[in-house]
């Protein structure tokens, strides 16, 4: 019996290492655009002014000028991603479904959206179409368990920069998002 209690944690640790290695090796973004960021341009309608980092409210976490919106119907994923980005001093907003995500974008300056493709009220593509009516400049990465080619193409046309498949390596997602945000800050700070 004592061997069972000694052996069980060892097996758990080994299994955790094996799973993490597998996730890292297979979880690279499906779509990676060039270093330039594609922006969605609406067909018609009034020109919207993009929000700038100066619009952030004083309730921002830490000293980072960035804000990230995590849209996923799984609360565990939202909580995990929230903790990860808050460690980077990023202001984090959460939405459990597409309608809440649209409201967040309407009421808060969002720099980056992590958007689940499959949600109960509307899928990520429908939500993103509505978000683009409010903010054409916000950067978006989609998270999905399904890689439907039609959805991938629709997402590309809406300016989605990458797809991550579930289960994903959270450190890889964080590094990808922070890398894009830091590149954007560098570009905005350059003097011509």
TrEMBL record:
Domain Response regulatory: 67-181
Sequence segments annotated as region (Disordered): 42-62
Alphabetical list of Pfam families matching this protein: Response_reg (PF00072)
InterPro entries, per the entry: CheY-like_superfamily, Sig_transdc_resp-reg_receiver, ST_Response_Regulator
Modification type 4-aspartylphosphate: residues: 116
UniProt entry keywords in alphabetical sequence: Phosphoprotein
Superkingdom per UniProt: Bacteria
This protein's name: Response regulator
UniProt organism field: Paenibacillus solisilvae
Lineage, top ranks: Bacteria, Bacillati, Bacillota, Bacilli, Bacillales
């Amino acid at each position: 019996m004592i061997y069972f209690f000694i052996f069980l944690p060892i097996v758990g640790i080994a299994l955790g290492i094996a799973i993490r290695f597998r996730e890292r090796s297979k979880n690279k973004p499906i779509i990676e655009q060039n270093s330039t960021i594609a922006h969605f341009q609406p067909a018609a309608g009034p020109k919207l002014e993009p929000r700038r980092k100066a619009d952030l409210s004083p309730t921002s976490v830490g000293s980072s000028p960035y804000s990230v919106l995590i849209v996923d119907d799984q609360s565990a994923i939202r909580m995990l991603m929230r903790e990860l980005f808050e460690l980077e001093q990023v202001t984090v907003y959460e939405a459990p479904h597409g309608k809440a995500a649209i409201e967040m974008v309407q009421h808060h300056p969002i720099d980056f959206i992590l958007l689940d493709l499959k949600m109960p009220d509307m899928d990520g593509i429908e939500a993103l179409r509505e978000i683009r009516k409010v903010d054409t400049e916000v950067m978006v990465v989609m998270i999905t368990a399904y890689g439907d080619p039609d959805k991938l193409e629709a997402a590309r046309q809406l300016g989605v920069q990458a797809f991550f498949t579930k289960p994903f390596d959270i450190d890889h997602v964080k590094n990808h998002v922070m890398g894009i945000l830091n590149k954007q800050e560098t570009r905005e700070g350059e003097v011509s």
